[in-house]
Write a structure and sequence with these properties.
The complex is a heterodimer. Chain A is mainly α. Chain A is 79% helix and 0% strand. Chain A contains 19 helices and no strands. Classes of the chains: A mainly alpha, B alpha/beta. The complex binds adenosine-5'-diphosphate (ADP) and magnesium ion.
């Protein structure tokens, strides 16, 4: 495997060399349409691309062909086995062929392993054969193509262009793939639970779905009020709201200070320091919230005679607020800094003080960008998981009292997908429906955030 | 002839570099004085001393004496906001605030608390726009953004904005350099109009403009004041060779 890749690259370099040499030879008499090395690159690409594709196809197809082959030659033994027994047998002989022997293998297994080794050797040979064959064909084609008038540079550009396009399409495809898998599983989930019950239900109690596990019949009436997302929504919004209560004032004020008041030296130091807040792993915030903030809040509550749960929305929200301060401050600082100096001068020249200028000219001018930074921060707060998993509770609670425990969408996704996961059970599948809801919520927020920021940028271009 | 602004032995430094060398120059009330000279000679720096806009620049240091109506503008008793209420400024590039036309003009009066009454503010805005020769063009769209106007209109809006706080002096730093010839000639006419009520000091790199609009001209070179006097004299028979070279276009 390693050697086959090495061979590929060695061959392609040989191709480069040959292509270049030929074109240099040609150029002794006439001037070429492109630089000699472009003929080399073309030869290289002609070899590398088809061989890589062939190699990849062989690699992917190997297992499939191997199993077909084993079926064929061991038919009389396998015919009596059940599907899972065959799978087990295959795994065993594959391990055996790689040398994992326990010394208690049956003759059949030994035979199977032997066949696999034979097959693999054959297949490797085939791989090399294909690689060399493709190389030969490619060399022949390029050789025929190379002539003084042939513009190899253009072909190379085309191939590079195609390759780059392909890369971007792959990124898009993966996104679409993730989205589709969310959608399909969500549809599965809606086979158990009515979408309306999901979106408008006010009871969240997924453990009810366990009850139906024992019997095979699914009682949809029980599921009817087990998966209402409303309590999770309120919980999520409550925690996000508390977070914004911390991060908006602190973030905005520090942005104003950094952009307008701070001497350059302080600015150069503080900006990265604040940005570190966003770089701290969220799990660290999580245990900070659970072990420090939550107990302190509970103590404080007790002191002033309030009944505060040890797992409160407040603890999670406050901690999360600290985490997203840099999302607000950094972007706001940028947009405030981007307000042209000429506007400040205009205001000062009319006799405005610094704070008047900031409040009446700079902030209104930067407002769209600042709002954009808020939206990005909210979207971050809604999607944040670790802190709420550790500091808020698992108990769904339809409340807007920050002192009570709440749970959020992200927390429930984690709960649904940890422990026993069976994908034919609504308790697990609901994670995808929750994920999709979250996906849409943050997508919408990000869209509006980026749009406002962009509009703002255009204003000063 | 009454002096409005008097500067005496003015030296200005940016860090170690001296930008203005010992300039003493007086400005007559209700006259237009043009400051000319090759770029980088300190015209803007000088102008920005007159309303203390250089205060904002950390490395800038001003020495010497500037007085407005006999009052030292760099003295401790003077509040800079108050000074700028008396000395308005129009910049090289039109810089209307991203607010409505109305709010642009009302910005200064509101800050200085001229009035609480809507009708009085309306009147201030209207007269300021009229003086700046812009009212007829924008009277039906005072709520439109100031930034939606054309370049020349924007510059007149900035002039209206400066006029609205009833200054005595208006400083203009190459107010037409970003405008087309038609907008420029409108502003030049406006300047001639405005000098009835204001003392105007205008920096310009255009000799013709200086000749057209100003009563007095001062020629700067490398941070020094080379020559000053009646515009007609400076442009016909200057005392200094350098001035002559500059106005005849031999350098600059
Ligand atoms: N903010 C500043 N910091 C440092 N040097 C400056 C600054 N502004 C102007 N200068 C310098 O002061 C000199 C005069 O500049 P300026 O007054 O802008 O000239 P002008 O308006 O006549 O073209 C120039 O040499 C310029 O480089
Ligand atoms: Mg200048």
């Amino acid at each position: 495997m390693f050697y086959s890749v090495l061979t590929l690259f060695v061959l392609s370099f040989i191709g480069f060399y040959l292509g270049k040499r030929k074109s240099i030879k040609l150029s002794q008499n006439i001037k070429l349409a492109s630089l000699p090395s472009y003929y080399g690159y073309l030869a290289m690409l002609y070899i590398l691309i088809p061989t890589l594709i062939a190699w990849f196809v062989l690699l992917v197809g190997e297992n499939f062909v191997l199993e077909k082959y084993l079926f064929l030659i061991l038919k009389e033994f396998l015919i009596s086995m059940s599907g899972s027994e065959v799978q087990l047998f295959f795994i065993k002989i594959k391990n055996l062929s790689e040398g994992a022997s326990f010394g208690n293998e049956s003759d059949l297994e030994l035979l199977g392993a032997q066949k696999i080794i034979q097959f693999k050797n054959l297949f490797l040979l085939l791989t090399y054969l294909v690689i060399f064959l493709v190389t030969a064909i490619a060399l022949y084609l390029v050789n025929k193509k190379i002539s003084p008038t042939f513009k190899s540079q253009r072909d190379v550009e085309k191939i590079v262009n195609l390759f780059i396009q392909l890369c971007s399409y792959i990124a898009i495809l993966i996104t679409v793939g993730i989205f589709l898998s969310l959608v399909f599983e969500t549809i599965n989930f809606f086979g158990y639970v009515n979408p309306l019950d999901f979106l408008f239900g006010i009871n969240w109690n997924p453990n009810k779905a366990f009850v139906i596990d024992s019997s095979d019949v699914i009682d949809k009436d029980i599921l009817k009020d087990a998966f209402g997302i409303i309590p999770l929504m309120t919980g999520t919004l409550l925690v996000a709201f508390l977070a914004m209560l911390v991060s908006i004032p602190l973030g905005l004020m520090s942005a104003i200070y950094l952009a307008e008041y701070a001497p350059k030296r302080i600015r150069d130091i503080s900006k990265p320091v604040i940005e570190i807040l966003a770089g701290i792993p969220t799990v660290v915030y999580g245990f900070f919230a659970a072990l420090v903030v939550a107990p302190k809040i509970a103590d404080l509550g007790e002191y002033i005679g309030l009944d505060v749960s040890s797992e409160s929305a407040l603890a999670a929200g406050l901690t999360m607020g600290v985490m997203i301060i840099p999302f607000v401050s950094s972007l706001s600082d940028d947009v405030i800094g981007a307000v042209p100096q000429s506007l400040r001068d205009g205001s000062y020249a009319l006799g405005a003080t610094k704070s008047e200028t900031i409040i009446k000219v700079i902030l209104p001018s930067a407002l769209p960008g600042i709002i954009g930074s808020f939206l990005l921060a909210i979207s971050r707060a809604i999607g944040e998981t670790m802190i709420v998993v550790m500091a808020a509770s698992l108990q769904a609670n339809l409340t807007i009292n920050p002192l009570e425990p709440t749970t959020t969408i992200t927390t429930q996704i984690v709960t649904a997908l940890t422990g026993d996961t069976e994908f034919d059970n609504p308790k697990t599948l609901v994670a995808f429906a929750l994920g999709l809801t979250l996906f849409f919520a943050t997508l919408l927020l990000n869209y509006f955030a980026l749009r406002t920021v962009k509009k703002y940028r255009e204003q000063y271009d | 002839m009454v002096n409005s602004i008097i500067t005496k032995n003015l030296n200005v430094y940016y860090g170690d570099q001296q930008a203005i060398h010992n300039i003493s120059l007086d400005f007559l009330k209700n006259k237009v004085t043009a400051l000319i000279g090759p770029s980088g000679c300190g015209k803007s720096t000088f102008l920005r001393c007159l309303n203390r806009m250089n205060d904002v620049i950390d490395i800038c240091r001003v020495e010497g004496n500037i007085s407005l109506n006999g009052m030292d503008i760099y003295s401790k008793e003077i509040e800079v906001e108050h000074l700028r209420e008396k000395i308005g400024m129009v910049f090289q590039k039109p810089n209307p605030f991203p607010k409505s036309i109305y709010d642009n003009v009302a910005y200064g009066p509101r800050i200085h608390g001229f009035t609480d009454k809507k009708e009085e503010m309306d009147l201030i805005v209207e007269t300021s726009l009229k003086k700046a020769g812009l009212f007829e063009e924008v009277k039906d769209r005072l709520d439109d953004m100031g930034t939606s106007l054309s370049g020349g209109q924007q510059q007149r809006l900035c002039i209206a904005r400066a006029i609205a706080i009833k200054p005595e002096v208006i400083l203009m730093d190459e107010p037409c350099s970003a405008l087309d010839p038609i907008a420029t000639s409108i502003i030049e006419e406006l300047i001639t109009d405005l000098k009835k009520s204001y003392t105007i000091i205008i920096v310009t790199h255009s000799m013709q403009q200086a000749a057209r609009v100003s009563d007095k001209t001062a020629f700067f070179h490398l941070g020094n004041l080379i020559e000053e006097g009646d515009t007609s004299k400076i442009f016909t028979k200057p005392d200094h060779q350098k001035t002559n070279d500059y106005i005849t276009g031999r350098f600059g």
